[in-house]
Amino acid sequence: MERVDPAAVMAPPAQQTRSLSEPIAFVVMVLALVIAPYFFYPMFVMQALCFALFACAFNLLIGYGGLLSFGHALYFGWASYIAAHLAKVGTISFPIWYGSPKWHWATIPLPPLSPELAILGGTLAGGMLGLIAGTLAIRRQGIYFAMITLALAQMMYFFALQAPFTGGEDGIQGVPRGKILGVIDLADPTNLYVTVLVIFLVGFLLIYRIIHSPFGEVLKAIRENEARAISLGYKTDRYKLMAFVLSATLAGLAGSTKAIVLQIASLTDVNWPMSGEVVLMALVGGLGTVFGPVAGAFIVIAMQNYLAQIGQWVTVIQGTIFVLCVLLFRRGVVGELANLLRIRL
Amino acid sequence: MSEFILETEDLTKEFAGFVAVNGVNLRVERGTIHALIGPNGAGKTTCFNLLSKFLQPTRGRISYKGKDITAMAAADVANLGMVRSFQISAVFPHLTVLENVRIALQRKRGGSFDFWRSRSVLDTFNDRAKALIADVGLTEFTDVLAVELPYGRKRALEIATTLALDPEMMLLDEPTAGMGHEDISRIAALIKSVAANRTVLMVEHNLSVVENLCQRITVLTRGRVLAEGDYETVSKNPEVREAYMGTGDA
Which residues are registered as beta bridge partners of B225? Predict the structure, then answer.
């Protein structure tokens, strides 16, 4: 008797699924996010959106470039400091040295900036830090790459702890939300939610475009087989650095937005557990999937918010989920789902 | 133009005191298939890595088309038209066969740093990619992930990817390693056809493949050139026989 493999019959051609499953999933995601604030605490959803963008930015690097950064809190956290400072104080002071034995402080007197400029400033800061850290880190591979990113992030953590403008243990509190372009008042919860949703969607679509661009194709090739990519004439270091800077910039966008939304920038966001948390989010959702990091971020943030009453046990549960993921769901929630349905997500 | 496309002079590579390649003078004539053979550990692959610039030589000089490439980066050598393959099949496993070949064709655009553009701009390469895939007999696998191909087909895909760059010179590292008879003859025929208007330098263990394909053979042992010539000359050389068979082998 002839047996027909149902999977072979059901599975449509690869090209067709690629053009349909992702747009459908995107529409579902947007609809869910539009109605989410009616069902959940809006502040939770906005916080989760910031982390979702952060996780997507991180996933761009590991899921598509094969580069495990263990210091992504650096870009997220420092961008939130810069954005918070620009929105609250504005004035920038930095030490310069011109020959004499003493350092001098140069000051650029700025008024407190509007939220869009503060976010822009934070995002650019994330990108600049990514350029510096990336230039150093991409010289090494695998675990050494991860260690260098971690070391640089910890260095900047201690800098954040000591630098006067970050407020040390207190962080920068009471960051004003202000008005976008002087018109849209973010004190209004609806305006704030829409703004965060738009920033998230713009970041998400940009990442989607990067993944599906000529650059993204080369990046995936480098992830798959770097030596072969070199032998085809690609200067892989430049592509990896580009991916690193893009990832850091988008992590910076997420961090800056979070500073405006939660009105605080603190040491938590630059410390190493934050770098670990973003790894967890991407892993739970599914590395190398487009929607996985979003799902992962919502799962992790939901656990932290809704299981908060059980205190320290949240960490234990997170650890257990991490272990289960590695052992049983290596593709993550979205990755396993996509594999089950034989589609791309 | 010189009749030798690739020349080395006193090419030497030492690893912490161990001399893997020792003063090799290699000259590859334009338009030939040149084989590099030798027993295990003779330094063939190291030699390959030196030529393709994946390793820096300790001493010596490499020139390609009369140009000194000793200090060049691996990617730049590829861009000059000398493209290598690898001992283990070098494909991009989780890309489709079409995408694998298109990555190489994409080189024609120069650097692909345009992350803001849709990859649909690459569709212009699809026809050429499909033609190359047909050339190596992989048409039916066009949309299959490379990881799912059988081993011999992976090697064919690798050759298609290399050909996509239209290289003047191909360095093939054991193109038939680990293959069954049928695959070997298919790959050998493929190499012969693509070598019609290019130069090929290949490391090969299978002597019947070497005999049928290669006009010139260099034998390496312990990092040194032992003999050089056509198959007839080399196979009669007593030192070569000894290196391959061993003296105690009665």
Answer: B220
Residue A31 lies in a domain: no
A139 touches chain B (CB under 8 A): no
Number of compact structural domains in chain A? 1
CA distance A295 to B110: 37
Query: Which of chain A's residues have a Cβ under 8 Å away from the Cβ of B161?
Result: 228, 232
Residue span of the structural domain in which A223 resides: 40-270
Whole-prediction pTM:
0.88
Q: How many CB pairs under 8 A join A and B?
A: 104
In this prediction, residues A37-60 reach a mean pLDDT of: 95
What pLDDT, in 10s, does the model give residues A288-311?
Answer: 999 999 999 999 999 888 887 887
Cβ contacts of residue A185 below 8 Å, gap of 6+? Answer: A179, A191
What was the ipTM of the complex prediction?
0.86
Q: How far apart are CA A188 and CA A150, in angstroms?
A: 38
**Alpha helices for A111-213 (secondary structure H):** 115-137, 142-162, 189-211
* Domains along the sequence of chain B with CATH: 4-245 (3.40.50.300)
Helix axes A142-162, A73-88, angle to 10 degrees: 30
pLDDT at residue number B189: 87
Residue A7 belongs to a domain = no
For B78, the closest of A212, A232, A246 (CB atoms) is: A232
pLDDT tens digits for A215-231?
Answer: 999 999 999 999 999 99
Residue with tokens 């790459």: A145
